[in-house]
Amino acid sequence: MHIAEGRNASVRDHDYFETAEGWIFLVLGDIHPAGRVWSLLKYVPGNGIWGDGKKKFVRVIQQYTVSELLKIISFLEEIQPSYVYQDPTVGAKVIAPPTSRITRVYSSKQRLIELMSRATDNRLERLLVSLVELLSEISGVPTDRFGVTGSILPAIHHRDSDIDLVVYGTDNLWRVLETLEELHRGGEVALLGGSEPERWVIRASSKYPVATHELRRLASNVINKGVYSGVPFSIHGVREAPAHEYGEVVYSTLGMARVRARVVDVRESLFTPAVYFVEDDGGSIDRIVCYDMMLAGVLREGDSIEAYGKLEVARRNGKEAWRQILIGSYEGAGREYIRIL
User: Fold this and answer.
1) 75 is in which domain, residue-wise?
2) Where residue 7 falls among pLDDT bands split at 50, 70, 90?
3) Measured distance CA(205)–CA(196) in Å, rounded
């Protein structure tokens, strides 16, 4: 798929793209500067376990920590500085290569159509198609509202890769998640929150200053990750359309803050970024926003929580629109957290 210089309409959240160096990036969200794409460098050519039979790759980011991200930004600033962008809407450096450097776009939706339209002897691909067909049949969400991401998208997966799916649209996503809970009760899948939390807890304990029992409580809420026929899977949402135009909303920081609040709406919590709408007694914040996607889908409506992160004011067209706690900031690396009270 071609992406025109100066435009970025051809890519969607969770798609991948490849640059002239053969580097593979994950698209982050749907709001991008003109001629650039917010993204994360995932794979580079090397002697790794990922590959397509002709070329091998190594994975650049392992644990999705802020410290890893900062190292990648430093690497890019040294090797290919045009791929790093000082974004005025967030007041920070981000990875956003120019579209002129993109040589190929990997569409999540088109890749799934391809996989479902042909026979394969690859077990992982067969299980992926089987899972999508099962979820579609029970939920009523058409298969063309699903997509595939992760290493299967650029076809560099290996036998131990996970299955990573996306669902387009909020209503569609939650119908699929309700179906997952039904399948979990029937024993056809094992959801992370219901029976497989330890892998998540181990990863989370290396990132957040939160007690293990509190992490297990967060993990118990997760319904978008689990195991199907022995293979780990995840499901995230892609918004039908961007929440706003680039430049329409500008964020400014008020420093780090600790708040207590009650969660009132979680329907946007499995998109990029994950958004929890909250209420607090002082009316100081309206949202908890997580670019750290490990914290996507870990809260339920009605949960009373404590969060520590960067307090930001969001101004839409110059007027204050809301306030939020951002989890996943450079300033709060290693100190940010969410816990249920």
Assistant:
1) 16-106
2) very low
3) 16
Distance (Å, whole) CA 101 – CA 90: 23
Residue 144 lies in a domain: yes
Mean pLDDT of the chain: 93
Measured CA to CA, the distance from residue 106 to residue 128 in angstroms comes to 17
Q: ∠ CA 233-309-241 to the nearest 5 degrees? A: 55
Residue 294 corresponds to which tokens in the numbers above? 């490990």
Structural domain includes residue 6: no
* Global confidence as pTM: 0.93
Same domain, 207 and 288: no
In a domain, 8, yes or no: no
Cα 288–Cα 109–Cα 31 angle in degrees, nearest 5: 40
User: Does 5 fall in a domain?
Assistant: no
Count how many domains the chain has.
Answer: 3
The string of pLDDT tens digits covering residues 18-57 is 999 999 999 999 999 999 999 999 999 999 999 988 899 9
Among 106, 136, 163, the domain boundary falls at: 106
Exposure string over 220-257, b if 16+ CB within 10 A, otherwise e: bbbbbbbbbeebbbbbbbbbeeeeeebeebbbebeebb
90 vs 289: CA distance, rounded Å: 13
193 with 73, same domain? no
